[in-house]
Amino acid sequence: MAIDPVCRNYVDEQQAQHTAVYQNRLYYFCCPSCQRQFEREPGRYLRLGWWQRFLLGLQEANAREFGGKRPSCH
Ligand SMILES: [Zn+2]
Prior knowledge:
- This protein is α+β, with helices and mostly antiparallel strands.
- It has one domain.
- It contains 3 helices and 4 strands, in the order ββββααα.
- The protein has a two-stranded antiparallel sheet. The chain has a two-stranded antiparallel ribbon with strand order 3-4.
- Bound molecules: zinc ion (ZN).
- Zinc ion is lined by residues 4, 6-7, 9, 29-31, 34.
- Residues 4, 6-7, 9, 29-31, 34 line the site of zinc ion.
């Protein structure tokens, strides 16, 4: 699972229809409007502090561990 850098939704790489390459990295988006927003101002969505990076890393680890399903509270 990848994370949409604009809205922070999970995106399935296998089914992703909206992608963008920025600085040799491929990003996945849930919808064309997120992709457009990102392409307009990539730096805005990638300017993350270490804490946000840490949280994203955790989310990615969780996604791997739970078979790509988002942990849910109910
Ligand atoms: Zn999105």
